[in-house]
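re: the backbone from monday

yeah here it is again, tokenized this time
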């Protein structure tokens, strides 16, 4: 038996909870209450491409990458925090049961609810292709909710995004909870049930391809209809009536231009998630990042160099500066950047770079693993020291760390590190790891402007293909 803490109350002022101590079994049953915890210090979930595990507060041995565990008990929830007006949290949610229900002639409805006592948070839902398929709306009880569209008869992988509301400019912290509920009914006329029946009774591959095209067309029609309804529901003061396309607006964002309220509302409805994230990261780099670096340097009694200079960070997190400056100033600048901006330099660059989701996870996994080892072992160990035997047992690191990584009772952080080790070792066995180790990010600074230098990436990985062939899964 293990001593743990659980939360049994509602949110208090959006920050505090009434806490009760008791004992629970380390064995997690499917339909038991689950309370997943988003810990900002441990969880890096500011990109849809990150693969982050979350602990269950009611069972310290249970963690998951996916919010599907919330579906099986109506009292289950995830608790998280938006730490600033710039903070964004992403979560994965898979609903594989849908396919089974459809084959049984059962229609299912899934509702996602956001509880935010101070109403400072919004929730947006995307499908695995990056299409925005739902924006949570007030339910009249102080919460926001949305229902996954019933015309979505195939997609079972979703991305949940939580962000601060547009009217919050200097938000410090805002607590929230996410709940996911399901209702089922016998409905042979629903799209998902009809689709399952048609596929089951298809005569041949050509017939199945015709069915696929039919439902892909229906999906796109309903998607366009949803976006038009969302746009028409906007207050007149927020409706964009200009002539620029979504891609043109995103291009302006990438170049550092601040879109007005109408343009942003338009983009959030119609833009693909992958394109929006790249534009948002590029916008921060162009419009805000350099100013923060310059202000920090001046506060430390330093002056950023004039003219053209570069910042480079390798995949292990080492920062170097190149340009016309004295050696002493260069060393000071590298130290200041390492201590204050290493996380932003890496995250914003890799979010803005045009790489696949698989490449992102490999590079980010290697980077995060080495960052952890650097901190935990004072730089004595790195990925190169890790071994994995034929039974999957991890070695080569300090004994206590290996015990935690190999334990079935590890917390979410160590489980995530273990998964990253397995992922990297598997890739290394197939392709070698040199292309990962040689990866670096680069920024160019010129005339008080910061911009990224796109890296050359030669990493092999089989890309996944979704059911809808004309809508590839976002990368």
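seq for it, each position gets an aa:
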């Amino acid at each position: 038996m293990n001593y743990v803490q659980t939360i049994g109350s509602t949110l208090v002022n959006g920050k505090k909870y009434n806490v009760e101590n008791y004992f629970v079994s380390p064995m997690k049953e499917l339909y038991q209450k689950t309370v997943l915890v988003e810990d900002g210090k441990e969880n890096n979930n500011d990109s849809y491409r990150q693969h982050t595990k979350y602990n269950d507060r009611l069972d310290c041995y249970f963690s998951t990458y996916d919010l599907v565990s919330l579906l099986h008990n109506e009292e289950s929830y995830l608790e998280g925090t938006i730490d600033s007006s710039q903070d964004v949290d992403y979560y994965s949610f898979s609903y594989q049961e849908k396919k089974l229900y459809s084959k049984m002639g059962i229609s299912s409805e899934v509702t996602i609810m956001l509880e935010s006592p101070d109403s400072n948070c919004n929730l947006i839902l995307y499908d695995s292709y990056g299409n925005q398929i739902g924006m949570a709306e007030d339910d009249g009880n102080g919460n926001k909710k949305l229902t996954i569209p019933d015309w979505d008869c195939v997609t079972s992988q979703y991305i949940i995004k939580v962000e601060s509301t547009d009217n919050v400019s200097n938000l410090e912290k805002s607590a929230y909870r996410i709940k996911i509920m399901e209702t089922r009914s016998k409905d042979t006329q629903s799209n998902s049930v009809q689709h399952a029946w048609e596929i089951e009774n298809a005569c041949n591959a050509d017939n199945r391809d015709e069915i696929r095209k039919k439902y892909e067309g229906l999906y796109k029609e309903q998607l366009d209809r949803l976006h038009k309804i969302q746009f028409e529901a906007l207050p007149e003061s927020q409706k964009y009536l200009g002539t620029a396309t979504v891609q043109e607006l995103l291009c302006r964002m990438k170049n550092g231009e601040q879109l007005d309220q109408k343009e942003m509302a338009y983009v959030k409805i119609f833009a693909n998630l992958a394109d929006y994230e790249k534009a948002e990261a590029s916008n921060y780099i162009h419009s805000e990042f350099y100013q923060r670096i310059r202000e920090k340097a001046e506060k430390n009694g330093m002056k950023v160099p004039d003219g053209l200079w570069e910042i480079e960070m390798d995949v292990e997190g080492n920062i170097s500066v190149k340009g016309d400056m004295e050696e002493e100033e260069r060393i000071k600048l590298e130290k200041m950047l390492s201590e204050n901006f290493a996380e932003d330099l890496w995250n914003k660059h890799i979010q803005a770079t045009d790489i696949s989701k698989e490449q992102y996870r490999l590079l980010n996994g290697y980077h995060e693993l080495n960052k952890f080892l650097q901190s935990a072992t004072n730089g004595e160990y790195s990925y190169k020291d890790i071994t994995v035997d034929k039974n999957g047992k991890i070695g080569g690191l300090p004994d206590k760390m290996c015990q935690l990584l190999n334990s079935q009772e590890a917390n979410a952080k160590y489980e995530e590190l273990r998964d990253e080790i397995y992922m990297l070792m598997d890739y290394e066995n197939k392709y070698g790891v040199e292309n990962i180790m040689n990866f670096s990010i680069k920024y160019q600074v010129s005339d008080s402007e910061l911009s990224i230098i796109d890296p050359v990436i030669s990493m092999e990985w089989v890309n996944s293909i979704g059911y809808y062939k004309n809508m590839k899964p976002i990368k």
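Residues 435 and 458 are 7 Å apart (CA to CA). The chain has three domains: 2-187, 236-271, 287-475.
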